[in-house]
Amino acid sequence: MVLVAGSAFAQVTAQPAGEKLAPYYPTPDSIVRKMLDFGQLKAGERMFDLGSGDGRIVIMAARDFQADSTGVELDTDLYLASEAKIKKLGLQKLARIIHGDIMTQDYSSAKLITVYLLPESNIKARPILEAQLKKGTRVVAHDFGIGGWTPVKTVTIADDGEGRSHTLYLYIR
């Protein structure tokens, strides 16, 4: 029995294969809310956060918007911390983190995608999103647009005390 539990733990905490597409740089909570509002997230909608870091977007989407929220995070420590916070907050029915590579997931059920990746990473993810997202799916990119796509709306948010402004890009597939 101990061997099985040990094996399961090793599987959960092993670093999945995949390329790290951005450094961990958490989005301020005020910007998280603006991203979800900007993307017009509604209760019950399915949303994905690509490169979910500490899970703050997934958690806010579940807790404050009652959305079915999924994050995808490659980093083992961030994945474990996110899952622990989701459990502590009792949000397991609405929030989850996939420990994996954003380039190998199925996003076809999404109504909203949020992303805070580097410009070249957005370009790498673009073909997967183009192939999988249904007509009308909304995509909100933070600070870096998605090369080759034209946003339907862009907003620049003045310095919120962090020492810099933020730009959000809204795309509708």
Describe the structure.
The chain is globular. The protein has a single domain, classed as Rossmann fold (3-Layer(aba) Sandwich). With 173 residues, it is α/β, with parallel strands linked by helices. The chain is built from five helices and seven strands. The N and C termini lie far apart (49 Å). The N terminus is likely disordered. The protein is 34% helix and 21% strand. The chain has a seven-stranded mixed β-sheet, with helices on one face.
List keywords for this structure.
single chain, 173 residues, alpha/beta, Rossmann fold, 7-stranded mixed sheet, 5 helices, 7 strands, 34% helix, disordered N terminus
The total beta strand count reads 7
Order of strands, main sheet, comes to: 3-2-1-4-5-7-6
Structural shape: globular
> What's the assembly state of these chains?
single chain
CATH superfamily annotation: Vaccinia Virus protein VP39
Beta percentage is 15-25%
- How many individual domains? 1
Order of helices and strands: HHEHEHEEHEEE
Described by strand count, sense and barrel closure, the largest sheet is:
7 strands, mixed
CATH topology: Rossmann fold
CATH architecture: 3-Layer(aba) Sandwich
CA-CA gap between termini: 49 Å
Helix content: 25-40%
Low-confidence blocks of residues: 1-11
Rg (CA only): 16 Å
**SS field, number of helical segments:** 5
